[in-house]
Amino acid sequence: MVRLRRAARPTLAILSSAVLSACATSHSFNDVEVARSALLGFTQEDIRMCAGFPSRTSEDGNTAIWSYESTERSGGVNLSAPIFFGAASTNLSLPSGGSCRAQFRFVDGLVDRIAYAGDNDSARGRDTLCTPIVDDCLTYGRSYGKGRYAEKQRPPPNAD
Fold first, then answer.
1. What is the DSSP letter of 129?
2. What is the DSSP letter of 42?
3. Where in the sequence is the domain holding 122, given as residue range(s)?
4. Torsions phi, psi of 40, nearest 5?
5. pLDDT digits (tens, 9 = 90+) for 55-99
6. Is residue 109 in a domain?
7. In total, how many domains does the chain have?
């Protein structure tokens, strides 16, 4: 049995918590990426039901683009440390928050593509500030068998 030195125990505790927190934050990242494919095939009515009315729309023939916007404001992190026995100090500010624009492209009334834009990356991962826009749509798709979730719920064709 290996005994850890007293100094190694806090380091091990910090590393363990970092690994566990990385596992806990992957959910938001996955939701945003999963939405890119899982929501394909949603109708315009489905998107209105789960995401609400769009902030902006654009139509050209059989193609429509709906834009949804989300803004997250939070305090961020401010660190201040005295140096030279308090004679001077240093300050570090890491602002948090940002905004997301999610664009849904419809071709013939069905979602064909989803794209994300804006200052939407966070410490949790790429595009994660877009999670509030697509989260309810993923739940809606699972609950009602919409989009790519409908393909999983279809019975297999008869082998007659």
1. G
2. -
3. 26-71+99-153
4. -60, 135
5. 999 999 999 999 999 887 665 556 666 666 666 666 665 556 678
6. yes
7. 1
DSSP code for 112: E
Q: How far is CA 126 from the centre of its chain?
A: 7
Amino acid symbol at 63: T
- Residues 40, 58: Cα–Cα separation, whole Å: 19
- 155: tokens are 């019975």
How many angstroms separate the most distant Cα atoms in the chain? 87
- What distance in Å separates the CA atoms of residue 87 and residue 81, rounded to the nearest whole number? 11
Nearest to 119 by CA among 133, 98, 97: 98
Task: Measure CA of the first residue to CA of the last residue in the chain; give whole Å.
Answer: 64
Residue 83 CB contacts under 8 Å (≥ 6 apart), including other chains = 89, 90
Instruction: Output the domain CATH number for residue 116.
Output: 3.30.1450.10
DSSP state of 125: B
Residues of the chain short of pLDDT 50, as ranges, are 1, 25-26, 28, 159-160
